[in-house]
Structure formats: structure tokens, C-alpha cells
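User: I'll paste a sequence; please echo it back and then give the predicted structure.

Assistant: Echoing your sequence first, then the prediction.
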Amino acid sequence: KLFDAMTDNGGGMEDGLAEENAIVPIDTSKIPNWKNILPTYNEGGIAAHSIRYKDKVYATPMISNADSMAYDYKVLGFHPTSWDVLFDSQFKGRVALQNDFGPTLTNMAIYLKQSGKIEIANPSDMTPGEVKAVCQFLIDFKKKGQFRTFWDGFQNGVGILTSGEVLLSSCWEPIQIVANRKTGDKADIRYGSMKEGHQAWNNMIMLTKGGRGRGADDAYYKLANVYLSPWFGARTLAGLGFGAQMVGVDDYIKANPKDFPAAKQKEVLDILSRKTARLANKGNSWQNVFPKNLRAYQDWWARLQAA
């Protein structure tokens, strides 16, 4: 009732809101930059479901990513390519996981499934037995002292890396980028690509029922057009490492040397290249904000935290 537009995660949120008639379908023909949207959002694409409800488009994607792991290359001396490194005894007490059962259990389920350690049908929507198996795996390592902490919030995530408290941390890419900027030459904090796969996700902007009633459609379409512009995509990618939602962002970066000097251009295009490869990993599993067995997730996460 109060907001004309709202943003949230794609992966069930749009379904829940649309089902309650809190958001309304949009007319993509009124968004000029929609023609440049990533193919993954077209019908049949891996992310198509994240902006649709009952085959109607309800949202415009703003940013996306495939969550992975930050690590201090200066200390490690190698680039981790598997989640397995989090459980290597030589890093006992120097590992951190995110204190959020959504991304943490999904990424760990992907690792355990792809490595053949646990049979899991869908890492994004596990059965109670699968949730138990994943959490019990983590509990066993927690009791051995493998994990230094489960970080909460952006600043905490950055702080444990910049202080050197941990060498490896499952986290959002912006945490790695900011941590690396803060440490300077003292560390070399990078973001890896795990061979098993990653949790993929996006954020999107939606038009509310109240917004349509107040005649805010045109304002929404103008905002959505900005979010699908290479101008926005390039700056979000450069600033925080979030994935651009349109094709051609690399050409835009190359065509604007004043905004992206040679050194910055090289850095940003490298982030884009690695991100594109990470998002294409066949082991990836899409974020699911409403797993069918939510209570099992909550209960077993509580047991993991209490262990």
C-alpha cells in the first residue's frame, strides 16, 4: 500500500507476492532496454522462472551472482577450485561460513552432491533427510574446530578477512572486493570458482498493486530501463562485483575509457569473465527462498549453531 515498487530476491519471492496480488504483471515492451536482457531470462532459460509467475513477467532483474568463496592468495599460495578446501585440516580454525542457512546449506549441498558424498536430488529444495545429512556433516567439522566463525552482516564478513582471522570464507563477492581494497598490500583476497557449483541468485524490481493504482507504471518502466542499461550494469559490476543483467556491458566498458581507465577496465573485465564462467557451471542451483521443508532447514540450522 505504501510503495509503488519493491525489490527482493528472485527464487520464490515473486511467486509468493504475485499469488497474494501484492505485485502486478508488467509490459516489457515499455522497457526499451529489455531487448538487451540476458538470454538466461528468456522463456526456457535457467533464470526465466525468477521473474515470472504463471508464465507472466512480474519483475525486472537488477543484479545477480553465483556465490562462492573468498580466500587470501598471499597466504595460501594457490587458487582453491573446490569447496573441499574448507574442510582441509591444515586450515582448521581459519575457515568461516555465512550465518544464513539459505546460501550456506545450498552451497554445501551442491558440494556434497557433486563430490558424491551425499545423495541429494535438489540442493535448493532438500528433503528433511537431506537437510539432516548436510547439517550433520557440518556439525562433525564444527565439533573438530574447523570453523572459526559463522559471520553475520557485511561488516563482519569484511572484518574477519581483513584482520587475517580467517583465510577462507564462503561469502558474497562484494565482501571479497571491499576486504581486498582495505588490506592493500598486506593481503591478496580473491574470489574463487568452485568446480562443484554455486548458489545462483538475482535481485529484481517489481511494480506493486498499489503503485499501479496510483498510476506509477511509467515511473516503474523508466526505473527498470535504467537497471537494464549498460551504464548501470558496468558501474554495479565495477563497484561491488554484481552481475550485469544485459548483454553488451563489456563493449560499454571498452568504449568508455574515461570512466574505465586501462587498469580498471582490465580488473572489471576479469571479474566479468570469471563471473560468466561461474554462472555457467552446470552444478549450480538456483536460490530458493521458500523450500518446501522450511521447518527442517530451521531446526537443523539451529542444531548446527548450538553444536
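The longest strand covers residues 59-72. The beta strands are 5-10, 52-53, 56-57, 59-72, 95-98, 147-151, 168-171, 189-191, 199-207, 285-286.
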